[in-house]
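> example.struct
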């Protein structure tokens, strides 16, 4: 009963805090729609870049231009000031330069020299170099095959081996791979940010206001206070997590890229599996943030301490992005990293083993109990000193 009374007090105080409510609203209502909208625009922009090529001197190479058009690319003429526009990033695609003597050299059987111009300071142009190289290589192979056919020689003589690609996953998965890797990052960073101010206010905030000592003078166990404060912060974090996950469904209407929309499938079942994976982490983070903040004698000091968690979390998640091969066993025992990998597997439609799910939950329970124990002891020591 006492824990419930403490919970109600801390819950009301959290809802009154303007900073906490601002983070809650931005995270739960606007975070996911904004993320998916930006992702959709980025993928659409990449697809648009693949549909056209900027060319200088297109009139000098009709055979090559015809081939490029047959591959589904639109030819856009680049101005004489293409170098300036590449440097200023007005052009986000490389420029293909065709010499004036292209047709004459080509007819004489001499390989004309073409140039692909990009700017190292313009990263977008670097991404478009390889597709142009692939097109030019395809044009050379086609022309070589035609020349051999005219001489009565089979074009297959050029093919020493035949290479075919076979993808085990759906082709659309490649389009949404980046989105699926960023989505768990968004969820985890939201968990870290949403309860931070509430955790600080309920611990260091009360120390700074001088209200913690009178509160602890009541004949109530410090464990009850720790549990009540954690329940309030944890409930707030879980509520935001719930709305954040559910906001994916209306946010799907903001995805304009059709390929991405088909590839990114998300169901009610996926949503509840997300919650099952992330709720233990959310509760553990709430307890840990209170334990970290209780050491601060002021709101500013506690905020600085908790900001370290915000800095360390992305480093842990980057490890998962950089790893190669199968996930090591220790990933399952590492908070944040384990949940990150589980969400990616869920989005990819992989089957999760019981151990993969239970081990991260066990780790979260250990962090939760250790944090609550530390908070209870620290609160008692604050009063005694």
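> example.seq
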């Amino acid at each position: 009963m006492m824990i419930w009374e403490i919970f109600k007090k801390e819950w009301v105080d959290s809802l009154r805090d303007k900073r906490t409510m601002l983070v809650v609203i931005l995270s739960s209502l606007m975070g996911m729609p904004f993320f998916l909208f930006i992702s959709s625009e980025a993928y659409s922009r990449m697809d648009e870049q693949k549909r056209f090529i900027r060319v200088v001197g297109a009139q000098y190479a009709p055979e090559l231009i015809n081939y490029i058009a047959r591959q589904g690319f639109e030819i856009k003429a680049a101005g004489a000031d293409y170098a300036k526009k590449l440097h200023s990033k007005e052009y986000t695609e490389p420029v293909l330069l065709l010499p004036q003597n292209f047709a004459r050299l080509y007819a004489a059987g001499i390989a004309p020299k073409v140039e692909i111009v990009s700017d190292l300071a313009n990263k977008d142009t670097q991404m478009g170099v390889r597709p142009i190289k692939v097109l030019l290589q395809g044009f050379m192979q086609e022309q070589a095959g035609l020349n051999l056919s005219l001489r009565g020689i089979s074009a297959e003589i050029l093919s020493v081996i035949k290479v075919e690609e076979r993808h085990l996953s759906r082709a659309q998965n490649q389009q949404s791979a980046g989105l699926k890797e960023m989505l768990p990052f968004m969820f985890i960073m939201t968990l870290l940010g949403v309860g931070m101010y509430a955790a600080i206010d309920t611990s260091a905030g009360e120390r700074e206001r001088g209200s913690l000592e009178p509160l602890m003078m009541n004949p109530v166990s410090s464990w009850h206070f720790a549990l009540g404060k954690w329940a309030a912060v944890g409930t707030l974090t879980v509520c935001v997590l719930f709305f954040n996950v559910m906001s994916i469904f209306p946010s799907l209407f903001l995805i304009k890229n059709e390929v991405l929309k088909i590839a990114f499938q998300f169901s009610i079942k996926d949503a509840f599996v997300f919650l099952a994976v992330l709720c233990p982490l959310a509760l553990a983070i709430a307890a840990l943030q209170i334990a970290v903040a209780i050491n601060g004698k002021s709101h500013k000091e506690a905020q600085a301490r908790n900001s370290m968690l915000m800095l360390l979390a992305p480093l842990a998640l980057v490890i998962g992005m950089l790893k190669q091969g199968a996930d090591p066993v220790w990933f399952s025992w590492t908070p944040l990293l384990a949940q990150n990998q589980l969400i990616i597997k869920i989005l990819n439609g992989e089957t999760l083993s019981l151990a993969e799910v239970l081990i991260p939950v066990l780790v979260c329970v250990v962090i939760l109990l250790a944090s609550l124990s530390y908070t209870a002891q620290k609160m008692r020591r604050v009063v005694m000193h």
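> remarks
The mean pLDDT is 78.
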